[in-house]
Amino acid sequence: MNILAVESSCDETAVAVVRDGRTVLSDCIASQVELHRLYGGVVPELASRKHIEAIYALADESLAQAGLTRADLDAVAVTYAPGLIGALLVGVNFAKAAALSLGLPLVPVHHIRGHIAANYLAYPDLEPPFVCLVVSGGHTLIVDVEDYTCFHILGSTRDDAAGECFDKIARVIGMPYPGGAALDRRSAGGDDRKYTMPHPHLSGNPLDMSFSGLKTAAINLIHTAEQRMETLDIPSLCASCAAAVSNVLVPRAMQALAQTGRRTLAAAGGVAANSRIRADLQNACAQAGIRLCMPPLSLCGDNGAMIGAQGYYEYLAGKRAGSDLNAFATMSLEKG
Ligand code: KG4
Ligand code: ZN
Q1: Contact 291/317 with Cβ under 8 angstroms?
Q2: Which residues' Cβ are closer than 6 Å to ligand 1?
Q3: How far apart (Å, rounded) are the C-alpha atoms in residues 285 and 292?
Q4: Which residue segments constitute the domains of the chain, with CATH numbers given?
Q5: pTM of the complete model
Q6: How far is the CA of 20 from the centre of ligand 2 (A)?
Q7: Checking CA distances to 300, which of 119, 181, 226, 289 falls within 20 to 30 Å?
């Protein structure tokens, strides 16, 4: 089954063709990062306009790269939530038009479910159940993936997402948007214990997380140094921040495995590209005898292939949308 998959929830326009949920035939992405960099963050209005300029040509390119024609497609999958509403609507409307004109079923896909499904592309034998650590620019969740379309949230951030925390700190250091990957690169060779970062103490669910205290502490440290005209050791500051974020995420992911009895941990989302988090997950899972799945960096960030992978399983579960499909800025992963 060949699915044309469309993703436009934030600042990447992406169209892919995925076969049977597991094989990527093409995965085309038009990134808007350079445009939004001028403003230090995503400008929603500009994102929508860029999506509409890019999406038609990108779909043609994706079909051509897959070596297919429109007649070879069996369904259209599209991200319909969560994300920037104007941006989502571009993809949703394009997918509706494609499905209607080609007489194909339309399958709505939750963006975070798509991030989790990136693991099915990277690990062809991976099947639920497993625990997934979802770390993106807007979401930080520990999820029990009970089945392909059945999710239970075990813990989530109470304030900022991990990616947001990295991006804000990077911005104050002076790195261009989105700073997460740049902060990661600058942490190479740094001393991760040079700067003391706070550990969040939360009451209630032990799998819940918090990153706003860490973000504020790092920003205060940078401003104080500026006022005192002191020079900071940037690689060590970046390494200390990455270690602090990882120390929130990794022990909780391991605790979630113990709590559920699952033997596999998957990672998903843009922040899953972080080298410190990847190394810590590898060590913790090796020690605990847990199978670890981490998609390659190209499948961690937003892409169309992940929507095609999840779209296949949503299709098998009977999920369909009509021409009245709407987009939603927020939506629970569990309801998705
Ligand atoms: O999943 P994603 O592409 O978009 C959302 O759905 O939010 O995640 C984007 C986030 C940004 O905050 C970006 O800075 C962060 O992922 N990111 C990283 C790294 N690469 C991307 N954060 C830390 N280390 C990285 N290597
Ligand atoms: Zn994403």
Answers
A1: no
A2: 10, 115, 136-138, 163, 166-167, 178, 180-181, 184, 269-271, 273-274, 301-302
A3: 6
A4: 2-116+299-316 (3.30.420.40), 128-297 (3.30.420.40)
A5: 0.97
A6: 22
A7: 289
